[in-house]
Specification:
Elements: H1 2-37, H2 47-64, E1 68-75, H3 78-85, H4 87-102, E2 110-115, E3 118-123, H5 128-145, E4 158-165, H6 171-188
Antiparallel strand pairs: 1-3, 1-4, 2-3
Helix pairs in contact: 3-4
């Protein structure tokens, strides 16, 4: 009987070890899943994460017949900031800008870095006109606070294109339309 109890204790100890290892593996998989969908340097989605968020938003638009918009923007003359003040200062400015914009978005919105100084925002339940007004407010608030972000940030501006998310367009067409509108905006500036 004592031998059987000892064997049960050994088995229970092994089960506890395996459960602890399993829990650690589950946490690691969750961490890696986050890394797959998030920018390595900034606390926003990456291009892959944005693709999933946009597909999800299209499904919501289709199912509930709501309006949402997609914003594509990049920072104007950002290469000059990196060239004049260094990449560390450029990265600092990007971090500050991302924090500033993120704090002004709703939990239902999605913010992503597409690469370099190019970003996208999905504004759920938002018309194109409301999206344009949102970007104008963000531009004004960034102009107001960016002076405190250090060298190169004092005249920080961006160009943006805003397109409506419709259920009949695939994600790549929605992105391409906003990108096209962003370049038109850049030419006007």
């Amino acid at each position: 009987m004592e031998a059987e109890l000892a064997d049960l204790d050994v088995l229970q100890s092994r089960v506890d070890q395996l459960n602890a290892q399993n829990d650690a593996l589950v946490r690691e998989v969750q961490r890696l899943e986050v890394l797959c969908d998030h920018d390595a340097a900034l606390d926003v989605l990456n291009r892959r994460g944005l693709a999933y968020a946009l597909q999800s938003e299209i499904s919501l638009v289709r199912r509930y017949r709501v309006v949402s918009c997609f914003i594509y923007f990049d920072l104007d003359y950002f290469k000059q900031i990196n060239d004049c003040y260094g990449h560390a200062q450029g990265d600092h400015i990007l971090e500050k800008m991302v924090d500033h914009i993120s704090s002004r978005l709703r939990q239902s919105d999605h913010f992503a870095r597409l690469g370099g100084d190019e970003f996208a925002i999905i504004l759920s339940h938002t018309t194109r006109e409301q999206g344009l007004r949102k970007m104008a407010r963000l531009a004004k608030s960034i102009a107001r606070v960016s002076k405190a972000w250090g060298p190169g940030a004092q005249n920080l501006t961006f160009s943006a294109g805003v397109s409506e998310i419709t259920s009949d367009l695939p994600p790549e067409d929605i992105i391409a339309r906003a990108d096209e509108l962003m370049y038109l905006s850049k030419k006007k500036a």
